[in-house]
Amino acid sequence: MLRIIYTPEIFSLQRVGGISRYICELITRVPNQGVSAKTVAGIHFNRHLRRLPVRAGFYIPKLGPLGNYRLQFNQAICRRIAARTPSAVIHCTYYSDAEYPASHPLVLTVYDMIDELFPEQSAAVPAGLKRRHCEHADHIVAISAVTKQDLIDTFRIPSEKITVVHLADSLSAVSSRNLGGSPGSYLLHVGVRKGYKNFARFLEAFAASSFLKDKFDVVAFGGGDFSAEETDLIARLNVAKKVRFVAGDDRALASYYRNAAALVFPSLYEGFGLPVLEAMGQNCPVICSDAGSLREIGGDAVAYFDPRDVENMQQVMEQTLGSADRLNDLRRLGSARKEFFSWDKCAQETADVYRRVARRSAS
């Protein structure tokens, strides 16, 4: 049986988040694809991993000063285990310069090319690390065709070295709590708001519309409290009573999706755009940017706007939200569209990558 080792990087760096959730979905599903999976998380603080039935390490939420050495310690453990597991394929859970046994083929997932396409923003990955890891990997999984093309264009990675495997929605299995206010009374934004996420233009489009301000509030779920800059902008636009920040767990997020008039997702770029898929899974209409991978994910089930054109954003929101028939169409189309994406399909296609890489390594 083919053996897979999942490395500790993301579990040492991320308490909760989309990347560690994705890896955990693989961990639970690839064994159903005839693959033996071992996760070497070491001493970690990841809550997604903690909830899995498999034992992958030791959950210690607070390590004090020892936390600075957590990743290096966990990688050393992983190297020792890999050395004792001949012919295993190593799937790196995040970008790293860690050296695992050269005899083991290495798979890496790339999620987006934000740092490279928006260099004016604070980088999420140290300069040069992603490129080095991509060049070193035996094969790359890209979570969208857009991310694959960006890898080819930016790093000159050969097309045949990259396989597109789409993600899926984990909220569909979550029972929502009764939160979110009056159904249909607000427009929902989910996640980080700064920089390329383009939240400021969304606020400008909202504030410019008497119709939108009269009918709806804006709820920003997650991404941290409003910054001083955002608070100033909200005040200048005179919408302080219409815009609020909320946070919560998956059950709360599912409830906010279900009660929203629509998800508005104004991002200038996405490697995948998971909130679009999450909204569809909760029967929430989606109005979003025609940018990055969002049309690849949303298909014909989304109302699209130009994210750099505030007036166009306003017009599309007004036209969509002003038509009950259009909103019902988006719900119907979204319900059908989300069926193209599943974690079982993701696991199957990823296991196919493991097998191809293992065969090439053995030949």
Structural features, described:
By secondary structure, this protein is an alpha/beta fold. The chain has two domains: 2-168 and 342-362, Rossmann fold, CATH 3.40.50.2000; 172-340, Glycogen Phosphorylase B (Rossmann fold, 3-Layer(aba) Sandwich). Helix content is 42%, strand content 16%. Helix 8 (199-207) packs across helix 14 and helix 12 (274-281) crosses helix 15 (324-337). It is globular. The mean pLDDT is 94.
Rounded mean pLDDT score:
94
Let me know the number of strands: 14
Q: What share of the residues lie within helices?
A: 40-55%
**Helix-strand topology string:** EHHEEHEHEEHHEHEEHHEHEHEHEHEHHH
Radius of gyration from CA coordinates? 21 Å
**CATH homology superfamily name of the largest domain:** Glycogen Phosphorylase B
Distance between the termini: 17 Å
Summarize the biggest pleated sheet: 6 strands, parallel
> How does CATH name the architecture of the largest domain?
3-Layer(aba) Sandwich
* Contiguous runs where pLDDT drops below 50 for at least 5 residues: none
Number of domains: 2
- Which secondary-structure class do the elements indicate? alpha/beta
Shape: globular
**Proportion of residues in extended strands:** 15-25%
Briefly, what CATH class of the largest domain? Alpha Beta
